[in-house]
Amino acid sequence: MDHSASPRNIDLLLARYAESHRNHTNEIIHFVCIPLIVLSLLGILWAIHPVVAIAATLASLYYYTTLSRQFALGMGVMSAVMLGLLALMPDMTVLPVSIAIFVVAWIGQFVGHKIEGKKPSFFEDLRFLLIGPLFVLSFLYRRMNLAY
């Protein structure tokens, strides 16, 4: 199948997401805050039970596989590292640390969008909550000259 004739769904989603992430400061904030939000969300789920965090990870990886196997692989590696970090943390610290990171990182996101002058993409489409991590990963992939 020739993807050059028509854009892939992942390319369309990333392009739509990028429309409200053009300001360099906002991009930098997102590069820091999005991975922290993913880590903190996994931490909150981990605090419920590690199986819940793993199940959520597998569900998101399934969705990512429907968009791009290369992105699913990258997100799988990132998720494995994050789950590994959570497993190393003392149980009593996972929830409070995760909640603190979650709140601070979301404040950062909204500051970035204030600077950008545009509302977050997920206000229009909740899928963009899952596309944000791929937006960050796409910069790494392009820097490393990896296809997605």
Automatic annotation (TrEMBL):
<protein>
    <recommendedName>
        <fullName>DUF962 domain-containing protein</fullName>
    </recommendedName>
</protein>
<keyword id="KW-0472">Membrane</keyword>
<keyword id="KW-1133">Transmembrane helix</keyword>
<keyword id="KW-0812">Transmembrane</keyword>
<dbReference type="Pfam" id="PF06127">
    <property type="entry name" value="Mpo1-like"/>
</dbReference>
<dbReference type="InterPro" id="IPR009305">
    <property type="entry name" value="Mpo1-like"/>
</dbReference>
<feature type="transmembrane region" description="Helical">
    <location>
        <begin position="28"/>
        <end position="59"/>
    </location>
</feature>
<feature type="transmembrane region" description="Helical">
    <location>
        <begin position="71"/>
        <end position="88"/>
    </location>
</feature>
<feature type="transmembrane region" description="Helical">
    <location>
        <begin position="124"/>
        <end position="141"/>
    </location>
</feature>
<feature type="transmembrane region" description="Helical">
    <location>
        <begin position="94"/>
        <end position="112"/>
    </location>
</feature>
